[in-house]
Fold these 4 entries.
Entry 1:
Amino acid sequence: MEVKEKGKPILGICLGAQLMTKHSEEGDIDGLGWVDAVTVRFDANKLNKLPIPHMGWSDITLANDCELWQNLPADPRFYFVHSYHFLFEEQAEVTATSLYGYDFACAFKKGNIFGAQFHPEKSHKFGMKVLENFSKLSV
């Protein structure tokens, strides 16, 4: 009710963001359906023998303007630990991508709903800025 009806901002991180999609291959279960995406496992055939899970620091590419990216330090990189990622039907909802064997959506926004596949809480000055920007959002 707070999120969908009252427009309260929410930020899903990693699994929390995956839960916001329509469906997840992990457990083959429906999600909340708050964004026009599904959660899929990394395609091992496209990873050129990179291990799953994707674990460590990776650069992101900002794809769309988003309040979370305001005043980010140069060359933003974030800490990832995941085996699944988002596949979006509506690319306008994707706010950042990253590369791990292939490009994948790593952050999104749909109205007041925000999600990040990476862990801002483990991502030093880059993550602190994202969390600070989110904390300044209001209904």
Entry 2:
Amino acid sequence: MTTISTNLQAVGARIATAAQLAGRAVEDIRLLAVSKTFPPERIREAALAGQIAFGENYLQESLDKIAALRDLGLEWHFIGPLQSNKTRPVAEHFAWVHGVERLKIAERLSAARGAGRPPLQVCIQVNVSGEASKSGVSPADTAALARSVAVLPNLRLRGLMTIPEPTENMTMARQPFAALRDLRDALNRDGLELDTLSMGMSHDLEAAILEGATIVRVGTAIFGERQST
């Protein structure tokens, strides 16, 4: 059994255990393998072990991988900050975008996606921790952005995403995830239909699942320590 296959099984077991503790169905939680900086052959290895969805945030690197692995029919998620001049290739080659934080970016993605294709699935990135170094819209401004994004053609607003400040304390780790869930629930009470919470990574996926994560973004626990670019 390959290392990546073994790692995927271990991550799957962690997800299942956390889901059981949360009283949730494990089928309601998707694993997104964050493959940025790793070569196509490592992604192919993960795909042959059953992993379908992969997350990237370096555009040119990801386009090269998408082309190299086209035969596998993988699902590609763009998870990093997105600049205006990169919206077209992202809209053309990805199924999901997790990091929308400005209406201008969403509008450009919508225009570039074009009619006749499945809607581009998008999540709004929220800076729940208020860190100056982190991307994302503030919780207070999320509702206005969400309402504007939800009506754009060629996009489907699925939910919210966050990358909170890391901590080893489980109680503290759960707080920002709970805040994102509460924000999602408030938006739904106001008429939106959001089903996705993209939150939790290798070190804190259990805390995220306990607070309702539907997508966990895991890189290191699958592929090992990230390679420099």
Entry 3:
Amino acid sequence: MACRQSLPKHEMLRLVVDGDGLIWPDLLQKAPGRGVYHCMSEACLVRMNDKRLQALKAHFKIILPQYSALLLRIESVLQQQLARMCSLQRACAAIGRDAVMHRLWNNAPLLLLRAADAGDALVRQIDDGLGKRAAAGCRSELVDVASRQWLGELFGRDDVAVVVLDAAGAAASTAERLRKYCVWHGRIQIVTMRNGHESKVSG
């Protein structure tokens, strides 16, 4: 919709239009009917606006403006899906500094979710651990997420600075979707905050 690139479907977000002309995110890409695909890079999210959505009127009956509301709908759907996925992963996740540092000794591929407001000492510990894993040829994916409170809510705790999940074998697909949704959620928050700031400045 924004950059006109040809990308694999799983790397983009499918959007569908309902009978009332509202655009909705189809995160699992299973909703019936025709859809369009939105590149979820930060650049494309920043570039997209109601003016660009006008192009959809050639194929769909949509109401405008609604891009600001669409961003909120996307954020909400991502939040719900992440909450469901993390709830299912609690039993096998390493949650908190001690559990995570122990899991980093595992040679298997890992996904790390680290809160943006994690303490400096923990950040240094994790970076050091990831550096040693990389030197040993172990694969790790690190995603910085919103906050300790947000990460804690996903995993049923009051406050969590870091979580590690296995990303090997049968768990690889789930870990990849979790990584992607966390990255998308972070980008949506950045764009939403930026749009809100610009509205206040222009107002």
Entry 4:
Amino acid sequence: MTRPNILVLIPARMASTRLPGKPLLDIAGQPMIVQVLRRAEEAAIGRVAVATDTPEIAAAVTAAGGEVVMTKPDHPSGSDRIYEAMCKLDPGGEAKIVVNLQGDFPTIDPQSISDVLPPLDDPAVDIATLAAQIHTEEESLNPNVVKAVGSPLGGRRMRALYFTRATAPHGDGPRYHHIGLYAYRRAALERFVRLPPSPLEQQEKLEQLRALEAGMRIDVMVVDAVPRGVDTPADLETARRLLSQT
């Protein structure tokens, strides 16, 4: 059920060098950004909007009946972009939770978008995110696969201790592939974007480490599968094949 205190924001811009014009590439008859918009709408957890600095993206979303907010072109990260979008869309502060959904997840399961919310039922949690268990050595060793290292809390939830591109933790036992979807308490997002980049964030090139280094709590929900991001022509063809079957 859609909740009025939740805002789902999808940052999108024309920054990809490997796939020029990525947000507007056709997947099963719709631009990719519209496919992501549809997954967010299907999750039905809150108001959905695309945050962009590109008029062409805005036009595609508007043509599909979606909501758009225009943001500045010089944001250093998607978190900064969604913070500006939140302030513009909800200046009165009605939204208490802001979900940051990447604009290149056209095949994400809408249930996974919903699954990021339960940790925020705990008032001690500032930010919630997702991960899926790793099942191959290739995935464990790949530095492009970010690993979430956490302490189990029961069920499918962990308290995040660290995120890394290294193969971690060492030894026997599960490892988890971090999924870049976040749900922030409004106050946590406001604090986060005001923090300077942290040493481990800069070393690992992982923005979420800024929050951990500042003492913020991130909890992780474990889901069944990693959504396929679209970064290469091969990824694009996979997404086209998957969504043409639905």
